[in-house]
Amino acid sequence: MRVLKTALTLLPLYCIPAVLGILPGPSYPAPREISGKSSSVAASWKNVTAILDQTLNGGGLGTLGSALLKNTTFSMGMFSLHDQDTHCMQYHHTSLATLNGTVGAKKVDGSTIYRIASISKLITTYAGMIELDENDWNIPLSRIFPGFKDFVEKKAEDYDAVQDIQWDKITIGDIAAQIGGIPRLGIPVSSDFLLSALSDPSVLDTWGLPPPDLAKQEAQYPCAKYLTSGSFDKCSIQEYSEGIASNPPRYPPAASPLYSDSGFFLLGGALSNLTGMSMDDLYSKAVFEPLGLKNTMSNPPTDPAVIARTVIPTTLAAELLNIPITTPSGGLFSTIDDLSKIGVSILNSTLLPTDKTNRWMKPVSFTGELHYALGRPWEIYRYVHQDSGVVTDIYTKLGDSGDYCGLLVLLPDFELGFTILGASSLGVHTQAVQLVADLLTDSIMPALMTQARREAVANLAGTYTPKDKSLNTTLTLSAPPSSNPAPGLVISEWISNGTDIKNILAKSLLDLVPQIPVPPANPDLVRLVPTIQDVAASGQIAFQMDTVNPTGPVAGHLFSKMYDVGDWASTIDQLTYQGIPVNEFVFHVDKKTGKAYSVTPSAYDVELERKN
Ligand SMILES: *[C@@H]1O[C@H](CO)[C@@H](O)[C@H](O)[C@H]1NC(C)=O
Ligand SMILES: *[C@@H]1O[C@H](CO)[C@@H](O)[C@H](O)[C@H]1NC(C)=O
Ligand SMILES: *[C@@H]1O[C@H](CO)[C@@H](O)[C@H](O)[C@H]1NC(C)=O
Ligand SMILES: *[C@@H]1O[C@H](CO)[C@@H](O)[C@H](O)[C@H]1NC(C)=O
Ligand SMILES: *[C@@H]1O[C@H](CO)[C@@H](O)[C@H](O)[C@H]1NC(C)=O
Ligand SMILES: *[C@@H]1O[C@H](CO)[C@@H](O)[C@H](O)[C@H]1NC(C)=O
Ligand SMILES: *[C@@H]1O[C@H](CO)[C@@H](O)[C@H](O)[C@H]1NC(C)=O
C-alpha cells in the first residue's frame, strides 16, 4: 500500500510525458506524392500487396487469414486528391469459386461490379446532401409519411414513451445519423421469428415464444400480403411505413445510435417526396451523372454483358434480388473505380460547397467505445498513431449484406482514401474484407504521416529572413525530433527585430495553462500545424502554434488534464496583437509544388523570404 502511494506521488515528477496537446485535424499539409517510387506510401503499399500475395499462397497472415482471403473474391484500390496515379494502386483476387462460376464475372478488376450493400446508405445521404436544403434535415417523419401522422394523432391522448414511436419528433437528419431510435427492420423484410415460423413452426418452440396472432399481424402490415406471392418488389414505402408505424421504439428520438435499415428505406421515401423525383432519378441526377459513373446503378443489372462483369457468388435470382424500397439502404451496385470517384468528389467538395462537406464530416453521436463515433451515416474510426499519439479520424461506410461486403474509407487529413469490395458464398467475405482493411490501414497510416512530414520539411522547413536586411529577424523551422515525430514543424529559431521570441513563446503559451508547480518550458513542444489550406486558389497555408505540456497535478484524470491536452480551448488564439493572432504564420507557396517561398508571422506584419 505504502509502496503504491509513493509510486503515485512520484509519478507526475518522474514520468512527465513529453506528449503534446494536439489539435484535431491534419498534422501537415496532405502528402502529394503517393504512388511514386520515393513515396513512403508506395513502399507501404508494396508491403501490403506482398503480404496479400503471401497470404493467398498459404503464408503471410496465417492459416485463418489464408482461408478467408482465398475464398473471397475482392478488389481494393486507393485514391488521392493530389496524385492521380494513386488510382493505379489496386489489388484484386478472384477466388476459385468465381473463376469456376457459371454466371457473372470470371476475373475481377477495377471496373468489376459488386453489390455494395449498405455503402448505399452513404450514397443515399450524399444525394440528399446535394439536393436538400440544410433545414430540410429537420423535417419530422410524420410530415412526410401519412401513416406516421395518423398514428401520432391517434396516440396524442394517451401516448406511451415505451410503446409508441414519436414519429413527429424524429427528423430525417436523425435517421440519416442512425439516432432515430426506431427498429432496425420491419415485417415483411425483417428476419422476424414470425416469418421463419410460417415455414418452420418449431422455431417458436425453440425460443419458447407464445403462439402468434396472425390475423392481427396481417391487419397491421399492408406488405404482409406480398409474403405469399413473394412479390416484395410491390411493397411501397407508404405501405411499409403504415406497417411499422405502431412498432415500439428502441430508444427515445435522438437519444442513442442504433443501426436501422428501415431508417434508410424511410430516408429514400422522404428524399423522393421532398425532391419530387424517384430515387433512381435522384441518384442519377445528383451523383451518377455529374461524376460520370458508368458502372454504378440503383437497379440490378439485366443486360447480359453487364452481368458478365458482375460478381455473382451464387445464382442470379439470389444475388440480383430487387426490393425497391430497400434500395436506399442496401441495393446499389458499383465498382472500386466508381466508388473512388465518389470518394474523391467528397474529399474535394466537387458536388457540395466546402462548408457543407465540413459540417457533414463530423460525428453526430458517440458509441460506447472511444475509437468509434457516428455521423450521417459515417462510421468514424479514430486511429491513434503509436509514436506521436496523434489521432487520425477515418470516415467510413461499411456494406455487409448477404454474400457481399465492402468499405468506402476516407482520410480527410491526408486527402486520400481507399475502397474494398468483396464477395463469397461461404460467409467468409466480411472477415476477409476487414482483415484486408486492417492490413492496409496499419501499414499506410504511419507511412502517410511519414510522407506528409517529409514533404512538409522539404517544402516549408528552413530559414526565413526579411528583405530589409537591416532588421535582425530570422525564423528557422525544422523537422520534429524522432522522440516526438508529430504533429507539425519545430520553431528552432525565431528572432524578431533583435528580440529572441522562441523562448518567450514556449513559456508564455505554457503560462496560459494553470500549472502548479510550473513545469519547465520545452520549446520543442511548440509546433506549427496547418489550419487553413488554400493552396490551389491563393497559394497560402495558414499555420497555428500547437502546444501544451500535459503535466496536470493528477496525471491522467479528465478534469485535471483538460487544459493540458485541449489546446483548442487553452492556448490557441490567446495571444493576439491588433486583433491578429501572434501564433499564426501564413506561408506563401507555389500552387503546383506546395514549396514555400516566404512566410508572414501575421502579427509581426513582415514577409520573410525562404533562404534554402
Ligand atoms: C514492410 O514490412 C516490413 C516487414 O514487416 C517492415 O519491417 C517494414 O518497415 C515495412 N515497410 C513499410 C514501408 O511499411
Ligand atoms: C477456403 O479455401 C481453402 C483452400 O482453397 C479450403 O481448404 C477451405 O475449406 C475453404 N473454405 C473455407 C470456409 O475456408
Ligand atoms: C478538385 O477540385 C479542383 C477545383 O475545385 C479541381 O481543379 C481538381 O482537379 C479536383 N481534384 C480532383 C482530384 O478531382
Ligand atoms: C471447379 O469446377 C470443377 C468442374 O466443374 C469442379 O470439379 C471443381 O470442384 C470446381 N472447383 C471449385 C473451387 O469450385
Ligand atoms: C409528400 O408527402 C406529403 C405528405 O404526405 C404529400 O402531401 C405530398 O403530396 C408528397 N409529395 C410528393 C411529391 O410525393
Ligand atoms: C525594430 O526595432 C527598432 C528599435 O527598437 C525600432 O525602432 C523599429 O521600429 C523596429 N522595426 C520593426 C519593423 O519592428
Ligand atoms: C540579433 O538578435 C539576437 C537576439 O537578441 C542577438 O543575440 C544577436 O546578436 C543579434 N544579431 C545582430 C547581428 O545584431
List the helices and strands and how they pair.
Blueprint: H1 2-14, H2 40-56, H3 62-70, E1 73-80, E2 90-93, H4 96-100, E3 114-115, H5 119-131, H6 146-155, H7 172-176, H8 193-199, H9 202-206, H10 214-220, H11 225-229, H12 237-244, H13 261-275, H14 279-288, H15 304-307, H16 316-319, H17 327-330, E4 333-334, H18 336-347, H19 354-360, E5 365-366, E6 372-374, E7 379-384, E8 391-401, E9 404-411, E10 416-423, H20 429-460, E11 462-466, E12 474-478, E13 489-496, E14 499-500, H21 501-511, E15 527-534, H22 535-538, E16 540-546, H23 562-565, E17 576-577, E18 580-581, E19 584-589, E20 596-601, E21 608-610
Antiparallel strand pairs: 1-2, 1-10, 3-4, 5-6, 6-7, 7-8, 8-9, 9-10, 11-12, 11-21, 12-13, 13-14, 13-15, 15-16, 16-19, 17-18, 19-20, 20-21
Helix pairs in contact: 2-20, 5-13, 5-14
The chain binds 2-acetamido-2-deoxy-beta-D-glucopyranose (7 copies).
Task: Tell me what the CATH architecture of one domain is.
Answer: 3-Layer(aba) Sandwich
CATH-defined superfamily of one domain:
DD-peptidase/beta-lactamase superfamily
Overall CATH class of one domain:
Alpha Beta
According to DSSP, the number of beta strands is: 21
Bound molecules: 2-acetamido-2-deoxy-beta-D-glucopyranose
Description:
- The protein has 612 residues and is of the alpha+beta class.
- Among the domains are: 2-20 and 461-610, no CATH class; 119-374, DD-peptidase/beta-lactamase superfamily (Beta-lactamase, 3-Layer(aba) Sandwich).
- Helix content is 34%, strand content 18%.
- The strands form 4 sheets. The protein has an 8-stranded antiparallel beta sheet.
- Helix 2 (40-56) packs antiparallel against helix 20 and helix 5 (119-131) crosses helix 14.
- The longest helix has 32 residues, at 429-460.
- The chain is globular.
- The chain starts with a helix and ends with a strand.
- Mean pLDDT is 93; it is low at 1-18.
- One 2-acetamido-2-deoxy-beta-D-glucopyranose (NAG) binds at residues 81, 344, 348.
